[in-house]
Amino acid sequence: MSGRAEDKRHEKNDIDTSNSAIEPDEDVVNGTPDRCHVSNPVNRSLRNGNIVISYTNVEDCELEILQELVDLFELDARVSWSDSVTHLIVKTLPTGRCIRTKKFMNALLLNCFIITLEWAKNCLASKTLLPEVDYIPLEFSGEPSPLVSWRVGRGIIDSPMEWTRNCILYLHSSIEFNDSHNDIIVWARRAGFVLTNDLGEFKDHYKMRVILADKIFTSNDVRAKLPNKAEITNWICHYKAVTLFLDWFLECLFQYRFVVVSQYHQIMKLNPTLVDFTNMDESIFQYET
Fold first, then answer.
1. 102-109 vs 246-255: helix axis angle to the nearest 10?
2. Neighbour-count burial of 11, counting CB atoms closer than 10 A to its CB (0-12 exposed, 13-18 middle, 19+ buried)
3. What is the mean pLDDT of residues 180-185?
4. Beta-carbon neighbour count of residue 112 at 10 Å?
5. In terms of DSSP bridges, do strands 167-171 and 87-90 run parallel, antiparallel, or are they unpaired?
6. pLDDT at 158 exceeding the cut of 80
7. What is the rounded CA–CA span in Å between residue 284 and residue 275?
8. For labelling, which of 2, 134, 186, 274 has a CA lying 20 to 30 Å from the CA of 286?
9. Phi, psi (degrees; rounded to nearest 5) at 225
10. Which of 19, 136, 38 is nearest to 88 (CA)?
11. Residue 145: phi, psi to the nearest 5?
């Protein structure tokens, strides 16, 4: 093997232990401010060549564990997210739940293995790659969404995200000021939502017609401000569309299922009369009491 090829191999297989392992700001998923979202190893040589690991919310002192895992089983590793990642290793909270990060979102929507750090520790202790399904954590909400995503990816169950194909989304200008703007577009497409830049495409055959907006306090640009009640009412009347906080969209993705539109998600509080005018199913909304 040439020196250049050898260097490249080490570059791919090394975990970066020189930097802080605390998730960088760019890996944190935020909604509206104050609404933060903060196997079978039979043929190991063949199987290991297809494993690409990454990690999230792992402490500095624990990166050595991942380096040992990479070295022992000759795995591939990525510090930054790549769509080639097959296994995302997460450090869970004492409750057993995951912190919400961009890496977590990408892994969830690509049906990757999302497994706890205990998997790495136990693989090292047993010197064999253990079944990942025994180490799948809960999402921050307490929902078993990583397990659901894994089962969908392997064809065990139908995707609970099929409803997204009947939901058309329009991103309000305020979304452009969100640091995750480009990611939001990618996530929406991967989840199956219909995206449009033209409100004229909001048709009745879509069961849900949603305009997403996000209040950005760090910008004085008028485009970064939330739409007012007059605008929202106009969109209901002309396009039969409801306007919601970005949080609703993120909550659906993180929980990997449809989330009822609560009052918390509504920029202008909805009532049955307004929803009836949109021809949407009233049961998917919660109203003021």
1. 60
2. exposed
3. 95
4. 24
5. unpaired
6. yes
7. 10
8. 186
9. -85, 150
10. 136
11. -65, -35
pLDDT single digits (tens) 216-267: 877 888 888 999 999 999 999 999 999 999 999 999 999 999 999 999 999 9
Q: Poorest-confidence range of 39-43, 154-158, 199-203, 273-277?
A: 39-43
pTM for this prediction: 0.85
The two tokens of residue 173 are: 């200008």
d(CA 193, CA 162): 9
Nearest residue to 210 (alpha-carbon basis) of 270, 177, 169: 169
Count the Cβ atoms, other than its own, within 10 Å of residue 93: 13
Contact by Cβ (8 Å): 107, 114 = yes
DSSP reduced 3-state for 252: helix
- The two three-digit tokens of residue 32, written as one number: 């509206």
Ordered strands of the 52-56 beta sheet: 76-77, 52-56, 87-90, 113-116
Check if the beta carbon of residue 115 is closer than 8 Å to that of residue 104: no
- What is the total residue count of the chain? 289
Handedness of CA 209, 252, 284, 215 (dihedral sign): negative
